[in-house]
Amino acid sequence: MPRSTPEAQGISSSAILAFVEAADQQSVTTNAIQSFMLVRHGQVVAEGWWSPYGPETPHKLFSLSKSFTSTAVGLAIADGKLSLDDPVLSFFPEDAPTNPSPYLKAMRVRDLLIMSSGQNSNTVAQVDEAMRNSVRSGEKITRTFLAAPVECKPGTLFVYNTPGSYMLSAIVQKVTGETVFDYLKPRLFEPLGIANPTWDTSPQGITFGGVGLNIRTEDIARFGQLYLQKGEWKGRQLLPASWVETATARQTSNGSEPTSDWDQGYGYQFWRCRHGLYRGDGTFGQFCIVMPQQDAVVAITSGTRNMQAVMNLVWDKLLPAMQPTALPADAEADDKLKRALAGLTLHQPQGAALSPVAAQVSGRTYVFPTNDQNIDAVRLDFNGSDATLAVRSLGQEYHIACGSGAWKKDRTAFTVGAAPWIAAPVEQPVAASGAWTADDTYTVKLAYYETPLAITLTCRFAGDRVLLFKAEQSVEFLPTVPPLLVGDAQ
């Protein structure tokens, strides 16, 4: 995408710097924003990545994937492959229950798009759990979804969920003969210049739809810009303008709290926001925010449970700064902003590079009783200020090099307390930084920089026999601070 100075596009560099500084301060405790890109009038005016995140690194989108699946539905409708009012059952006669209920028969494509399938929150949670377990069991997700009760008339009860998005993906595959991922490649990803996207699939070979897409920050911004331009991209109408208008409009109510950006209405897998804006979003703060009145897009990746706080920064710092005309050039402020953006980094453990305790504990293995974190043993090998963390988990030993006052990149399949639906650990990029936060305590931070996740391991050595160990996760669906573990020297 083309680049410009903020002032040329009607935003002061000082206002963007205030946003960056506030985001950085927020990240001290919450590890919140990991990257952002601000686009105004089709020009990128500011972009930043908190190292070890970077511009060429894909990021897990979680539920922001839903907006891409919605786009596939819109394209399939434009191709005459289906309609909003087609019954969901009509696509899966082989998976239909023997005696489908009237409400199940009444469920339409439109109801899935607006998160109003008629299933209540308990049913949705059960189906979602079955969907996760299917990764291991191979159970057919479409059949599980259609076998679940439909307690309410479809279209009348908003319950945010992922299984309905999976069903939309399965429907697109049924009518086009291609997965949503393959269907979007020539129609969306390639025209937008989205390079090397990946999208997870179910055991049945269906794109997950509601989750699983991995793309770069700029790719998120390109997607938002396409919607801002009513589906037009470089002179081509990639997506019908009518679909953009309908998909991003308020199609159903989802609450009435005026200060919440989750109560402003819902479209077709897009959220309405305060201030007349709309967005796609994913858990832990993956955002594609579109501002039609301001002619702007904000793309953000994050690692936080407090997603509202991230949006509030955009509303408080960036939104008021957008002026209708260009501002006078401000080379000094622009240079200051560029220096700040170039120096961004996730906050690392703060402490000393060396400790007298290091020689006593280096190379010793500390073994733990069986625990929910799946950590069997830990060893730290010190060589001056350099360190290597060795962790034995689920019968495998993993070695991770740790930087001192800097991030050192590596790859590992180790995570704390792997989710039960994951069949086997998956190797992924990681960056590690460590420091002696006290004479007897070494702290390592692991940043899994293609995801929102960071894990902080705090190792306190008592004498030469016992290691007190704590593993704290920045984000997870389970508690972020598990119980303390006590290990004995082997």
Walk me through what this model shows.
The mean pLDDT is 93. Among the domains are: 7-57 and 216-342, 3-Layer(aba) Sandwich (Beta-lactamase), CATH 3.40.710.10; 358-489, Calycin beta-barrel core domain (Lipocalin, Beta Barrel), CATH 2.40.128. A hairpin with a 2-residue loop joins β17 and β18 (441-447). α2 (65-78) packs parallel to α7 (163-176). The longest helix is centred in the N-terminal third of the chain and has 18 residues, at 13-30. Helix content is 29%, strand content 24%. The strands form 4 sheets. A 9-stranded mixed beta barrel has the order 12-13-14-15-17-18-19-20-21. The protein has a 6-stranded antiparallel sheet with strand order 2-1-11-10-9-8, with helices on both faces. The N and C termini lie far apart (56 Å). The chain contains 13 helices and 21 strands. It has 490 residues and is an alpha+beta fold.
List keywords for this structure.
Beta-lactamase, nine-stranded mixed β-barrel, 490 residues, 21 strands, Lipocalin, 29% helix, six-stranded antiparallel sheet
CATH architecture of the domain at 7-57 and 216-342: 3-Layer(aba) Sandwich
The largest sheet is: 9 strands, mixed, barrel
Q: How many β-strand stretches? A: 21
Distance between the termini: 56 Å
Tell me, rounded to a whole number, the average pLDDT: 93
Low-confidence stretches: none
What is the count of helical runs?
13
Radius of gyration: 24 Å
CATH class of the domain at 7-57 and 216-342: Alpha Beta
| Strand line-up of the largest beta sheet | 12-13-14-15-17-18-19-20-21
The CATH topology assignment of the domain at 7-57 and 216-342 is Beta-lactamase
* Inertia-based shape: globular
Q: What proportion of the residues is helical, as a percent range?
A: 25-40%
| CATH H-level homologous superfamily name of the domain at 7-57 and 216-342 | DD-peptidase/beta-lactamase superfamily
Structural class: alpha+beta
Strand content: 15-25%
